[in-house]
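Here comes just one.
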Amino acid sequence: MAETRITAQDLWKIIAQPMNDAQRRAVGETCATLATQHPDNPEALTLLGFYYTRLGRHADALPLLDHARALQPEYGPTLHALALTYVGLERHTEAEALLRALLAKDSPGGALTISTNNLDLVSALAATALYLGRTQEAQTLYAGIIDLTAAILAERPKATSTDDAPYPDKPHRTVQNILYLPVEVSARELDAKILIAIFAASKGMNVVVGASSMLTRYGFSDLPPGIVLLKTFNAIDASIMKSAIGKGHLVAVIDEEAVGRASTDSVYRFNVDPKAAAAADLILAQGKEQQEVMHRIYPETTAKMRVTGNPKTDVFKLTFPESNDTVKKDGSILICLMSGNVNPNARSFAECASSTLRLSGLSTNSDVGREFVALFKSCVSFEIEMVPQIAAAVRTLAANFPKRKIVVRPHPVESPSFWNRAFSNQPNVSIRADGTLTDWLRDSAAFVYISGSTSGLEGYLSGVPTIRFVGDGRALDPANSFSSRINVPARTGDELVQLLKPLLDGGAAPAARKADGDIVSQFLYRPDGQFVSRAIADELRALHRAHSTKDNAPLEALQSYNERRSEPFKPLEFHLRKFPEMSSEDFTRRLHDLAAKAGITQSFDIEKIEFNSFLIRAH
């Protein structure tokens, strides 16, 4: 059966690398055919099993790999795939034994050596150590993965194409009356983007709100020229901008992730790619502090920057009253986690580390690149330390408030299965990833977040009593971000109980800190009596007027978007976790609800044009 002879290197080459939809279908069909034609060949069975494992279909992979192992017990690729499958099924004790046996073959001297050949196995072992509570071993393994990934990237050209070819010249482009609003994580961004869409559409613009995984798939090259509003400007965004500009689009940026980082020059250099900053036609800053940092490091952005604020403030203005002093008697204790790097869903930490280091667009050989690698290692170290500490704190809260519902929300990109297992013996604790943070805050008596999470700002804006969990000091929050400096801190579960007990027993919330208001005012522009979303729509409308074509917007090209594509977009589990499938009816209901709260009486026509993508026009 030479035609199905598969080595571990072949498996990795065929399946382990990222695949697009067409490749995924073709590889899956080939693997399934081989396994059907050769049901007792361990190599064919392993190929299909490993394919399923890479898709997260671990239950489908297991019987194939068990059968392959029974046929040839020492076949390396089978053991390799089986170890990863055990991790996916949370059979960590079995996974650890198999992983250590496999890694021992690569480490004849006894000491583990991390290499490109065993990176995925080490990544699985690191996750297993974290899940089994061996924090120090997890720290060592995660740090080693980052170091090796940085060394690999230092030897390669940058992942983006922006280094190899210049940006297209930026002549005076003329665009259609179309605004594109990509949404990456619906639970965090959708309501704010809908508000921008409402104000823009009410001013006569045709607006597309859609999943960024779909809209950016071809860099906006298959969409009529309009204005694209991106949420960040990192190295990947720079590549998307290059494509969009080359196809005649204008590009605006509102740096929504700025709320999660410190306003220092070095941190902004990590997160803002210079080519993206240069390519943007309009930059919408959320406050004076951001404007000042950008002016210092990228002075060429000053003329095209406008301070508008962050549209999320509008969502909270409409959802919560000006004064929220009354604690909901039956409200839950809401807890937001921050373990997306070390507990990723549907991908390994090695993949996460590679993606993060590439995202910066920085050479890991440069001083600023090495500084970024060090910061990333510190952030990962903090996450690892917080996993057992926040788990212990939640159990303490559950024991002290047995009749109080405790809702734990994992980060949108992390796996909830670890937390389901961690709190399986606490009947008043539930793990919930559905809905938006705003929805859950509305029904909460108190809110706890891990220091550094952007949700700290949202808790502050909601008026719900908010506490920042900082841990016991074994690892310090390295981000020193905006949300790391506001709200009352707590180090342990016992301190959380001390702060929450008077509040939940009918007393007062933890005393507000005047310094928090001063920090927020400096960092976040909030115009009195006005909507930030309206100001953003005004700036985008002005940009369009300066670059407007006289032609009517080709709406038929948008309405037939799905039909015009060479292949339909099929979202992966990773995409659906970020933006679950949404019907036209649900989107319409959401838009009308927000419009009514904002006092907008305009009627809108709404049409679903692709996966989680909607065309909005004033009626």
